[in-house]
């Protein structure tokens, strides 16, 4: 009986230890993925009030927002990251990224990366070229979200190359600076995409896969933490960050 109690006590200790270990944050870098910041009740719209609470949460816990260029530079030994780095990204290039999100980011001394669909610039609800230049002037990194928001893994090679090269070329011509990063539309990619992007002159790309990013993470397959319209306020945001840490802990 005494022997059995020792075994049960050991098992309980191991379970508790595993539970505690699983909730200790890892050293991986989270990349958060947003789309819109407005009061529309759409799945990919986060209200300004909710966004403010999420950015305040990050700032109060000591996170420092870095660009993807800074993240990749550190991976390549060209710089150092702060103690708690995080990358904040926006897909598609909506005007509310400038009008609603940026003032909140600046309030908490955070910065972001905005991925632009080059053919959508200037259309209704989307950023104009002047607005994109203003984002750049206010410490926002600009990336590509392809030319037409096509799911790259569903295209033939020529179509893929056209989407990533055309978008990069148009953005660089308009902005006068290199565009080095891409977010896969719909998060869709396959094994061929890293080589295609590298040959097109990109340094990295973001997927829709949940998780964190480490030195060993393929820089063309960076993981993100998707943030849709929350149903449970800040608790849901915290849970999504925690899930990314748990995925990293268990190698998912």
Can you offer a commentary on this structure?
By secondary structure, this protein is of the alpha/beta class. The chain has a single domain (28-249), classed as TIM Barrel (Alpha-Beta Barrel). The chain has 8 helices and 10 strands. The strands form 2 sheets. Strands 1, 4, 5, 6, 7, 8, 9 and 10 form an 8-stranded parallel beta sheet that branches. α4 links the parallel β5 and β6. α6 (157-175) packs parallel to α7. The chain starts with a helix and ends with a helix.
What key phrases describe this protein's structure?
single chain; 252 residues; 16% strand; alpha/beta
Say which CATH homologous superfamily is assigned.
Glycoside hydrolase/deacetylase
Oligomer: single chain
The span between the termini is: 39 Å
Rg (C-alpha, Å): 20 Å
Main sheet? 8 strands, parallel
- Number of separate strands: 10
Question: What CATH architecture would you give?
Answer: Alpha-Beta Barrel
């Amino acid at each position: 009986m005494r022997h059995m109690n020792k075994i049960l006590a050991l098992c309980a200790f191991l379970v508790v230890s595993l539970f505690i270990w699983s909730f200790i944050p890892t050293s991986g870098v989270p990349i958060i993925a947003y789309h819109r910041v407005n009061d529309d009740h759409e799945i990919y719209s986060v209200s300004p009030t909710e966004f403010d609470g999420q950015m305040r949460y990050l700032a109060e816990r000591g996170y420092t927002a870095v660009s993807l260029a800074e993240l990749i530079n550190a991976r390549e030994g060209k710089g150092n990251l702060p103690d708690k780095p995080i990358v904040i990204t926006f897909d598609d290039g909506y005007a509310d990224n400038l009008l609603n999100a940026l003032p909140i980011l600046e309030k908490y001394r955070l910065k972001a990366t905005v991925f632009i669909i080059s053919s959508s610039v200037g259309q209704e609800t989307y950023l104009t070229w002047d607005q994109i230049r203003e984002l750049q002037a206010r410490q926002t990194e600009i990336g590509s979200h392809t030319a037409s928001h096509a799911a790259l893994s569903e295209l033939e090679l020529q179509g893929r190359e056209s989407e990533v090269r055309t978008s990069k070329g148009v953005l660089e011509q308009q902005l006068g600076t290199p565009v080095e990063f891409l977010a896969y539309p719909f998060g869709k990619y396959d094994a061929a995409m890293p080589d295609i992007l590298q040959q097109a002159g990109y340094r990295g790309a973001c997927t829709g896969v949940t998780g964190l990013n480490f030195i060993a993470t393929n820089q063309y397959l960076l993981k993100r933490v998707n943030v849709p319209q929350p149903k449970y306020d800040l608790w849901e945001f915290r849970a999504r960050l925690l899930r990314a840490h748990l995925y990293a802990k268990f190698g998912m």
